[in-house]
Amino acid sequence: MKAKTALRINMTGLAPTPRDEAQRYRAALEMAAFADERGFSVVSVEEHHLAENGWLPAPLLLAGMIVARTTRIAVNVTALLVPLYDPIRLAEEIAILDLVSGGRFSFVAGMGYRPLEFAALDKAWDERGARMDHVLETLLLAWRGEPFLYGGSMVRVTPTPLSKPHPPFAIGGMTKVAARRAARFGLPFYPAMSLPELEAVYHEELARHGKRGIVVQPEEANAMVFVDEAPERAWTELAPHFLREANEYASWRREGIPRPGEQPVDSIAGLRAQGRYEILTPQQCLDRIRGGRAGSTLCLHPLAGGIPIERAWRSLRLYEEKVLSVLAPD
Hints:
The chain contains eleven helices and eleven strands.
């Protein structure tokens, strides 16, 4: 049996000094290369700005570094806050990522839900929906490789992507508006959790526009796994890092928009009850993989919330030695 494994890199847990933070970023790249060499399925990065805990603000830049360090693994941004970008520049940069990666790069187009990010990047919060549509329309036109009217001038964006009809991406969101937008563009819809009501809205809108599409979503509420021989002891050691990440994320919640893990917690018991973070033994990982449905993916998050680099490596190497080697021995 072959394990499908994802590596999550979001750089939460800002180090105390720039020198220490530099080591964390270099470690993240080494871990991506490790994942590529060991047959992981995907490495995912994310985007947030002005986060107290250092949440990754430049996902395309880091994705490009990962693409350059790898040869096989898929590289995904989930989610890319597209209204915050210049659409022509975004089309150019993603085209280059698509070319260099050989089609391994993909992203989830998110609109964003933090007014602070829009203010900091000089974008109007109350125009975010219209801007989202504008950026998406421009990307799809730009990637055709043909001239089109933009801002009163005829332009042709180069280079043209390798992937056809365009670099792969989905529309993310947790609202009916997001579901309808994805259907209107004929693009996959990616909610962050299972929401049958939104799926129904998406399929109804697809039918109304005479288009086809699919709903894709994270497995098991996007739970993150850390591998350790002694989970109970590891929970005591690692919970402060998990809490640091989880509570900043929860602090961004908005009324009326459900998101997995959005309630703040102040204890190990509360964190464990959420199910967003799991510490499993190698045998539990094996059981999870063998007992899971075909194609299910285990998501490893070794640097979560500032977990020390060497501690993160111990978890990754344990997974390699006692899980991957058992499933696919040399």
